[in-house]
Every structure is written in C-alpha cells, then in structure tokens.
C-alpha cells in the first residue's frame, strides 16, 4: 500500500465487522473500527473479544498493531463499511432497521464529496436505495451525484469466517446508477473470489435467496426424515440412496435450524408483500423439528414425567460456540414442558458464563440419566464410546438427531438408538 491508499471506517465490530476490519487492516489499509458499544470498544482496544473463530485472535491482534484503530466516534474516511445488526422483530413482523439508520446518520455526519458508503448487513430488498439513502442524504450530498452508495452482502460461514471472507465470490451493487468500479477495486484488493456487479437491490435480494434456499432444502431433508420415520424406514439410508441420482442432492436432517441468519433472513423476503408460501412453510417445518425430537424421546421412554435427560450439544451446529437460535434450547424447553425432571446440558465449545446456564462435563451429564439426546454435530461426538454411556447412564435410550453414532455398535452395547 502507498500513502494514497484510501482510509476505511468500519461501523459495527461484531462477527462480521471485526474480521472485515482486521482483514482490511492486514491488507495494508488504514482502518478505523467504530462500535456503538463502549465496553466492546474498550475490550477491543486491549485486544480482547469473545467472538470465537479459527485464527481470528491472532489476526485481530496483528491488525491492532498495524492499521486498525478502534475509535470512539466514526471518522472521516474515503470508504464507510456498515456491518451493524439487523434483527427481525417478531412482534412487529418486520426487520428492525434502527441500527442501520443510526449507522447511516453517523456516516452522514462525516460524509464528504467523493466518499463511498457500503452497507454489508443483511437487509430487505430496497433498504440501501430507500431507508439508508434517505438517512445518508441528510448530509446534504446526493447518492446519484456526490457520493457512491452501495451494498455488498457478507456470505461467510461461521466457523470458517476468515477463509470465506477472503475467498468467497462477492456481489457489489450501487444505487442511483453510480459506477461500481471503486467497490470492485476495494474487494478485489483482498478477495480471491470473483467480484460480480449488480444494482444494490439485486445484491440485497441475492443474499436473502441464498439463505432461503438453504433453509428450504434443509426443511425438505427434515420432512423426509419425518416421513421415513412414519414408514419405518432409515432416513439416512434412503437419502444416501436417493442422492446417487445425478440430479438429486438432499441435505442432512437434524434437530432444526439455528444460527444468526438462516432462521431469520428468509423472513426478510416478506417485506411489504405476502408472496412467500414455500419459504414460510420451510421455516415452519424447521421450527417444528425440536418438537419431533421430543416426540421421539416420548415414544421411546413413554411418559417423560420425572425423567432425567442429557442433551449433548448446545451450539447451533458442530464445531462452533455460537448458541444463537440454537435448537438445543427449544428442545430443552419442550422436554421440561413434558415433565422431564432434570435436564443436563453439555457442550465442549460453549462456556456456561456466556449463556447464563450451568453446563456439565460430558461424563457428569450422563450420570444416572434415563436418556441422552445428541443435538449438535460436534466432530468429537462421532468418536463417543458406548461404554462411557453404559457406565454412567441408568437408562438405555439414545436419540441421535444427527445420525453420528454407529447404530449397530451402540445397539450391540445394549442401547436403544433412535435417529432423526
Ligand atoms: N454472523 C454472521 O455470520 C453473518 C452476519 N451477517 C449479517 O451481518 C450483520 C451484522 O451481523 P453480526 O456481525 O453477526 O452482528 P453482531 O451483533 O455480532 O455485531 C454487530 C455489532 O454492531 C454494533 N453496533 C450496533 N449499532 C451500531 C452502530 N450504529 N454503529 C456502530 N456499531 C453498532 C454492536 O455493538 C455489535 O458489536 C447482520 O445484518 C447479519 O445478519 C451476514 C453474514 C454472516
Ligand atoms: C447459504 C449458506 O450456506 N449460508 C451460510 C449460513 O451459515 P450457517 O452457519 O447459519 O449455515 P449452516 O452451516 O447451513 O447451518 C445452519 C443450520 O442448519 C443446520 N443444518 C445445516 C445443513 C444440513 O444439511 N442440515 C442441517 O440441519 C445446521 O446444523 C445449523 O443449525 O448463513 C450465513 C449468514 O448469512 O450468516 C452465510 O453467510 C453462510 O454462507
């Protein structure tokens, strides 16, 4: 980089913004990192944060030494990149865009002619060209003449964020017919994937349909699992055989869909319309899986009243510590409602302090329980030994929602194993 390289202000330093700011700084840019949360800012200034991603710690520390400055106010910069939350307000049935608006106001206060503003948060189609544009134009500058306003969705997979941030293809789109070349140049400078261009609304839409596609496909797998159960068939065997067809690729059934994005983003497509039917139904199918898990357990144990049950895995998917929208909590609530007396939760990746709930070690969780439910597909669970369970459990029921255990081996060891 040279002295003439642009400065970049990243607004929001969470799961997306912090790796983004660090990657930009490590690529040689001068980066201001602004987060609205003062505690998070002061932790970051000390190099401390509780976002767990492979290599992120080292990467952020390196950036903080050279290039990334955590600031208590947004700063003037040639590029503003906005990575703030966009939660879905289920009571109002719409996306909460207040954080995007607040960030837009902060950008407007620092905006100069010629700057580029890029929204990276996931939003309903039309947000950048509508709400965000209105807010940023309060600066007195126009998005079609004086500055460039654009959108570029983030598609990183939690657990593999740093790699995907640098390697995934990207889409960049602008509003007001502005050229995309400066956005392309920015991302091209640190991304090895292809950079595609569109208008901002198309770029917003593409992000949403990617996650709705995955949600819908997982729902299909989950529905197949329920049907297979009904017909007394092994769902995994049937799916593996169906997938031998050259144009069939059914995903893996499981305990439901968790995470910060896939259960939420498809809802953004309903914005100002009532068209989605398939997408909404897929949501309901996936949201119904924790109930199906509870039904499997009830069928195996009879009455759940007074039972002790261990839930293996709290994170929403294997190999991560993220518990946002995790099916484990929904399963736990459902089992308690059905009368389960004692529920033990265990997870090798999650800390009790982070979730405000006491977690047990794997061994403790199994002591004298009537049943164990494997919820999260943590890689470690593939190597579980039936002997450890037999030595500790008082019952012999295992519900394996991820089909990770070798049924024959566990049944030979005396367990009744039920798979989703
Ligand atoms: N977590 C993920 O893996 C992915 C998230 N996304 C999307 O990216 C966006 C951000 O998500 P996350 O990083 O996960 O959220 P997050 O909650 O981890 O981080 C957001 C950060 O923004 C800060 N913030 C809130 N208002 C602010 C403001 N006005 N100015 C500056 N900072 C502000 C918060 O204090 C927080 O630290 C969301 O729209 C999300 O849907 C997209 C792809 C992947
Ligand atoms: C289209 C797509 O693959 N989107 C990714 C997704 O990340 P996320 O970790 O939420 O996705 P995931 O690995 O499919 O997991 C979602 C949930 O679905 C479950 N799951 C996943 C695949 C499967 O066959 N069966 C299944 O039950 C997982 O256990 C998890 O609970 O959402 C991210 C996001 O938008 O935040 C996005 O950036 C990622 O690229």
Automatic annotation (TrEMBL):
It comes from Halorubrum rubrum. Keywords: NAD, Oxidoreductase. Belongs to the UDP-glucose/GDP-mannose dehydrogenase family. The keyword Oxidoreductase applies. Its EC number is 1.1.1.336. This is UDP-N-acetyl-D-mannosamine dehydrogenase. One of its GO terms (molecular function) is UDP-N-acetyl-D-mannosamine dehydrogenase activity. It catalyses: UDP-N-acetyl-alpha-D-mannosamine + 2 NAD(+) + H2O = UDP-N-acetyl-alpha-D-mannosaminouronate + 2 NADH + 3 H(+). It holds the Pfam family UDPG_MGDP_dh. It comes from the Archaea. Residues 310-407 form the UDP-glucose/GDP-mannose dehydrogenase C-terminal domain.
